[in-house]
Amino acid sequence: MPLDAAAPLLCAGITVYSPLKYFELAEQGKHVGIVGLGGLGHVAVKFAKAFGAKVTVISTSPSKKTEALEHLGADSFLNSRDPDQLQGAMGTLDGIIDTVSAVHPILPLLGLLKSKGKLVLVGVPDKPLELPVISLIMGRKTVSGSSIGGMKETQEMIDFAAKHNITADIEVISMDYVNTAMERLAKADVRYRFVIDIANTLAATKP
Predict the structure, then answer these.
(1) How confident is the model at residue 188 (pLDDT cuts 50, 70, 90)?
(2) Which terminus of the chain has a lower count of CB atoms within 10 Å, N or C?
(3) Superkingdom, according to UniProt (predicted)?
(4) Distance between CA 138 and CA 195 in Å, rounded?
(5) Integer Cα distance of 57 and 34 in angstroms
């Protein structure tokens, strides 16, 4: 595997691979929602599709629809700010991997789940999220969290990624571009991971 495009899998890749496997969403025919199309989300789409799942990307940015469907191969796209779209998709998902690190409501997401559906949080908001308990009780739904995996599972993830040609979408930068990259990162101006070529062995070029 190319080292630059494989490197982010050791963080972002295992972060989404592990819950897909643990919560039994990595199965043919499962319908999985991916919330957020960033560094974690774009890799989650790739893994879920490789597992044979039907994938719906859920985002507040309608501009990401084309990227989700045409570039990453998602099956459908939901604008989470559009009540009509959310209403039309209620009760259709077996599970959701939520990659968003900003504070956001999870009630609409719970509504998208089937009975016994699973909402798995892998993003880390800086403030507590509100948990609508009645939505959990009525559908026997689950809200869980997941971090990364151990060495064995990480190796399994890398092997799976190599077999299915899964890599992160990256932008290779040189060390002297780091400050500019941090400024761009704060504005979410990266698609989708910066990889720093410290020794200039990958012939990094400034964008």
Answers:
(1) confident
(2) C
(3) Eukaryota
(4) 44
(5) 5
* Confidence at residue 203, expressed as pLDDT on a 0 to 100 scale: 58
Fill in the DSSP letter of residue 99: -
State pLDDT tens for residues 62-82.
Answer: 999 999 999 999 999 999 999
Region of residue 188 (phi > 0: left; psi between -120 and 50: alpha; otherwise: beta): left
**Structure confidence at residue 160 (pLDDT):** 98
Whether the pLDDT of residue 202 is over 80: the answer is: no
Q: Is the peptide bond before 17 cis (omega within 30 degrees of 0)?
A: no
Contact 139, 113 (CB under 8 A): yes
Phi–psi pair at 167, nearest 5 degrees: -135, 165
Q: Is the pTM of this model over 0.85?
A: yes
Rounded CA-CA distance 2/67 in Å is 23
Amino acid at 100: V
| 8 A C-beta contact, residue 10 and residue 201 | no
